[in-house]
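Continued from yesterday's entry.
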Amino acid sequence: MLKKNNEKVENIFTDGMSNFFTKLLLFVFSPNKDNGFDDNLR
């Protein structure tokens, strides 16, 4: 029972992390954001 719960928590955690990184990548590579980071990459 405890192990099952533990796996569930880990799944939620990894899903959250991948979701976070996906949003981060979308933010970093989005072409229409208006800040100074973009100019350094070109």
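--- second protein ---
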Amino acid sequence: MKVYCLLVILICSVACQLEQKTDRSEGKENGLKKGYLERKEMKDSVCLSQTLSWDDYAMTVKTVHLFDSAVDKEPIFIPAIWSQKIEFRKGGKLLQTHWSPALSTERKLSRTKKVILENVIDEVGVLAGRYGHMFFLDGVSPCNSCTEMKLVFSLEGKLLFAAYGSRYEKHFRYGNWEKIIEEYGIGEENFIERMELKGVLEGPRY
């Protein structure tokens, strides 16, 4: 009877340890946190902020929307975006700040002429490698210039890779993607977590 009781206690103890290990593992895999959309209205614009976090690291994209549009009476058709700033933090401490490398273009808006970005970041995410994780950002062109933009940063905010342009013209390129794949151990089995930035393409009144 004593042997049986000891065996039951031992099995329960091992099961508890395995459960604790599993919980820690799942917590590590689910280190992604998606922040809420924050709005800060100003005189003629609104700043939309959204944060994506991985463990203690956080990336915030701040988009300044003008209260205007490239199409009269249609404020959500072509967003008039003045600027986009990318901030990187660890434990709440600011590490790096970058501005979107997208070109500016002068557009006749519904009220007046304004300089706006011709390509805007509308999606962000975390790319997982065997040897490290990275933040990535995707940009599209709401001004029908057919450009695409892809940015990859380390969790600390160091620019690792950037490609911006169209099939006809390359505006900006930095880094070697093949080298990053090898260094971080990125393969087909690695997962990509994506998050759409709310309100960027919908307009400032989202």
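The radius of gyration is 22 Å. The longest strand covers residues 57-69. Will compare against the first tomorrow.
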